[in-house]
Amino acid sequence: MIRKIKKQLYFFVAGYFNFWAKIQLSLWKPKIIVITGSNGKTSTMHLVRSQLKNMAKYSDKANSAFGIPFDILNLKRKTFAPSEWLLLFLLAPLNSLRKINSKKLYVAEADAERPGEGKQLSSLLKPAITIWLNLGRTHSGNYDNLVKNGKFSNIDEAIADEFGKYLVSTTDLCIINADDQMISSQSESSAAKKIKISENSLKKYSVTTKGSRFAIENKVISFGALLPREFHYSISAVFALLKELNITPDYSFKDFHLPAGRSSVFEGISNTTIIDSTYNANLGSVKAILRMYEMVVSSNKWLILGDLIEQGQEEAEEHTKLIDLINSSNVNKIVLVGPRLKRYTFDGINKEKSVFENPKEALDYILATMTGEEIFLFKGARFLEGIVEHLLKNKADVSKLCRREEVWQNRRKKWGL
To answer: What is the largest CA-CA distance in the chain?
Structure first.
C-alpha cells in the first residue's frame, strides 16, 4: 500500500522541485547537453568530462525526475531519513534564486526509468544537444501497463517513446545511434539537426586484460579499461559533440576514468583477475560484455551473473534469452546468482554451472572451488559487488567498487556479506 502511494505521488512531489529548478535554470542559462539511453549513460558522461573538463557542470549520480532538479538546486540527501524531506522542501525555493553555478555548459545524464520521466525532465532541461545511443529493457516492468491498456503494441515501443521525449525537446542537435531502428524512428519527431553514428565508424577493435583499443576516424584510441565494442558509439558521439562546440579533441583521453562497477579490472586473491561490471545488467549489456569477454585470452574464464531485475512481464523472456548467449560464449564456468536465473536460465545452460539465490552462498562456492589464475567476470545485481569485495587482493580497492553508501553496506550485511 505504501509503495503504491509513493508511486502515485512520485511526479507530483518531483514537480515541486522541478518548478524551482526551472527558475534556477532561467537565471543560470547554461547550454544543456543531455546524455540518455538504457545503458552506458554514466560512462559516456565520463568520456565527455575527459574532454570538457571544468568547462561544464555535470549531473553526477543524478539522472531522475528528483535527482536532476536536486542537482540544479544544489540539494543533497545525506541521511535518507523521511524527516530530511522537510529541509529539502524549504531549501528548494531559496536555492532557486541563488547564483549556484557559473559554468556555461550543463551536462546531464537523464533517464526514463518510468513513464512520464522523460516528459518531465525534457520539459525542464530543454536540451540544446541530446546524445542517445542505445535502447534496452531496463526497468521495463514500469511500462507493462502501457502495453496492457493498448497504448503501445509492445514494451520496446513504450520505452522508446519515453526516451524520445528528449529528442523532441532538443533545439540544436541530436546525436543518435543509426543502427538502432527504434532510436532512428523516434528522431524523426525532432526538428533539430541530426548526426547519425553507425557501426561503419569503427575500423578496428581489440581488448585484453590490459585495456581496449578503438580505431575511429583514422585515429587509434587506447584506454586502460576493458570497454565493450559498443563503446565506439560513445567515442564517436563525443567527437560529434566536440565538433559542434568547436573544441579540438584530446585523442589520448588521458583524463577518462571509468565509473565504478563498469568493467573495472582488479587483482584478485590467488593470482586471479576480476572484471567488475556489477553496477547493473539487462540483456543488451550482458550481450555486449560477453562479446568483449570473448576476446580476452584465458583458459579459465568464469562468469558470475546476477538476476536481470525490474523486467516486469518480460522477466521470463529476458532471462530465457540469456541461455543462448551463455552457451555460445567461451566461458568455462558459470555461477548464477538469483531466483530468476535459477527459474528461467539454469536448466538450459550446457556448460559447467552452479546457481545460488544467496550471494553469500555463491561467494563460499567460489572460494571453495577456485584454484588460482582464474579470470572472474562479474555482471549484474544481487549484491555481486559484495562478492567482489571479498576476492580483492588489495583491500584498498574496495573504495573503487559501486554502492559504497551506508544503506547498501547495511543491506549486504543482512545477506552475510
So the answer is: 61
Q: Is 80 exposed, middle or buried (0-12, 13-18, 19+ CB in 10 A)?
A: exposed
Strand order in 273-277's β-sheet? Answer: 264-267, 273-277, 375-379, 301-306, 333-337, 352-356
Residue found under cell 556448460: 351
Range of the domain at 379: 264-414
Give 404's contacts (C-beta < 8 A, 6+ positions apart).
Answer: 260, 398
Quickly list DSSP for 71-107: HHTT---SS--TTHHHHHHHHHHHHHTS-----SEEE
Q: Are 206 and 226 in contact (CB under 8 A)?
A: no
In a domain, 258, yes or no: no
Tally of residues, the chain: 417
In this predicted structure, the answer to whether residue 251 has a pLDDT above a threshold of 70 is yes
The Cβ-side half-sphere exposure at 152, using a 13 Å CA radius, reads 15
| Domain match, 229 and 375 both | no
Q: Which residues pair with 266 in a beta bridge?
A: 274
Q: What is the pLDDT of residue 5?
A: 52
CA gyration radius for the chain? 21
At a CB cut-off of 8 Å and minimum separation 6, what does 57 contact? 30, 101, 103, 105, 106, 107
Tens digits of residue pLDDT in 140-168: 888 888 888 889 899 999 999 999 999 99
Asked whether residue 399 carries a pLDDT value surpassing 80, the answer given is yes
Both 41 and 7 in one domain: the answer is yes
- This prediction's pTM: 0.90
The CATH number given to whatever domain includes residue 380 is 3.90.190.20
Q: Rounded to whole angstroms, how far apart are CA atoms 385 and 364? A: 14
